[in-house]
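thought: user wants a sequence for this fold. calling inverse folding tool.
action: design(structure=
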């Protein structure tokens, strides 16, 4: 095929000056129009072929191939074929010297089109993998990003080789001397890649995990594990981008074990005024045993392996332990106890150590609060008082007018 008919057509209109140049321009425009038609035709064929070929394919593959733009980028190959075919036809005679630089431009463009197709293919794999169960445990975002980086670096090398008309291996042989520079330039990338591999291999963190790094202001769920950074959404809805290698070089707390176990620890202390502790008489002990344990004092002592004399602190501690064990929202199969801690200037703490069945923050706090509120309210039944700091030996109680004026004598 040639474009001599264009010259003949121009001569019919009496155009003889700059005939060859004008013919080349018109011919080039026709080739560009042909490139657009080839691209549109390729897109039409691909779009209709997708609907038929992928109609019965799994949803993840259909969405992956469509949303990644893989086929759209494949259609870019059609114009390149057209241009490459017409270069030796268009540029002849006085313009034959243009063929070599134009082939170079087409070669560079073809290199980057193929690179874009391969990166789209990497996106296809990533999107399809996100639909699998293992995507949460072993994210491959970092691996995909490394693959894209390698593809881009290879495209750069091939581009330079095409422009210089040298073999790519010739250029690669010179990169040995540039290793140190590359290590400095891509330091964070390389460290992030190594850290990402270690995180995935050891399953240290996964998308959706709740992690906490106090020094870096991180306390929330992992949204994305990338090549260079880890995206975390804190509970206050702020977003933190944490360098991936920080999770390897520094310790962090992963709350996922709590989520998998299905029990969230409650560790709260009731501050008891030591001045309110006392030894119970037989009548007082029998009354408390019948009221709160539905037993006689003797049966209660035997069941709890206790002997007289018994303090109201002991009875309240046993009551708290029993209350926790019978609470519907407390896990009995995990550690559960009520214990008296070392006395402090703020009184003696009665610590509740148990695991709540609710792991959702709001529900967990509601259960924990209701337990503490009930125990504080029932504490006076045992003759105990909660401790609170007083100012200059003044105990404050509200009178009818809302003033605080009661005096507490020194102990």
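)
observation: tool returned 411 residues.
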């Amino acid at each position: 095929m040639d474009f001599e008919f264009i010259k003949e057509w121009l001569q019919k209109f009496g155009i003889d000056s700059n005939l060859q140049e004008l013919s080349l321009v018109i011919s080039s425009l026709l080739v560009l129009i042909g490139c657009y038609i080839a691209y549109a035709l390729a897109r039409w064929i691909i779009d209709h072929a997708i609907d038929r070929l992928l109609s019965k394919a799994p949803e993840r593959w259909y969405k992956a191939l469509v949303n990644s733009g893989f086929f759209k980028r494949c259609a870019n190959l059609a114009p390149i074929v057209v241009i490459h075919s017409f270069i030796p036809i268009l540029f002849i005679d006085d313009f034959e010297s243009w063929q070599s630089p134009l082939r170079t431009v087409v070669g560079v463009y073809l290199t980057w089109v193929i690179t874009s197709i391969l990166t789209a293919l990497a996106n296809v794999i990533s999107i399809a993998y996100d639909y699998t169960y293992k995507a949460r445990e072993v994210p491959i975002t970092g691996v995909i990003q490394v693959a894209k980086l390698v593809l881009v670096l290879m495209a750069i090398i091939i581009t330079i080789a095409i422009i210089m008309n040298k073999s790519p291996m010739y250029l690669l042989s010179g990169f040995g001397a540039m290793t140190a520079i590359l290590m400095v330039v891509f330091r964070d990338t390389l460290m992030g890649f190594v850290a990402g591999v270690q995180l995935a291999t050891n399953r240290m963190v996964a998308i959706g995990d709740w992690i906490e790094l106090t020094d870096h202001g991180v306390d929330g769920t992992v949204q994305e594990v990338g090549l260079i950074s880890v995206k975390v959404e804190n509970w206050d809805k702020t977003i933190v981008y944490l360098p991936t290698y920080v999770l390897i070089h520094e310790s962090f707390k992963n709350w996922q074990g709590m989520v998998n176990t299905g029990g969230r620890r409650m560790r709260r202390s009731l501050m008891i005024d030591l001045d309110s502790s006392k030894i119970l008489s037989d009548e007082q002990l029998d009354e408390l045993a019948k009221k709160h344990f539905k037993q006689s004092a003797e049966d209660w002592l035997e069941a709890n392996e206790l002997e007289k004399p018994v303090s109201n602190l002991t009875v309240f501690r046993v009551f708290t332990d029993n209350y926790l064990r019978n609470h519907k929202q407390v896990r009995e199969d995990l550690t559960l106890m009520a214990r008296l801690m070392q006395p402090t200037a703020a009184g003696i703490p009665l610590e509740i150590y148990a695991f709540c069945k609710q792991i959702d923050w709001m529900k967990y706090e509601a259960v924990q609060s209701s337990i503490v509120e009930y125990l504080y309210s029932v504490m006076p039944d045992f003759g105990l008082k909660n401790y609170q700091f007083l100012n200059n030996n003044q105990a404050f109680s509200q009178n009818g007018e809302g003033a605080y004026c009661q005096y507490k004598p020194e102990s």
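thought: summarizing for user.
answer: Here is the designed sequence. The longest strand covers residues 264-272.
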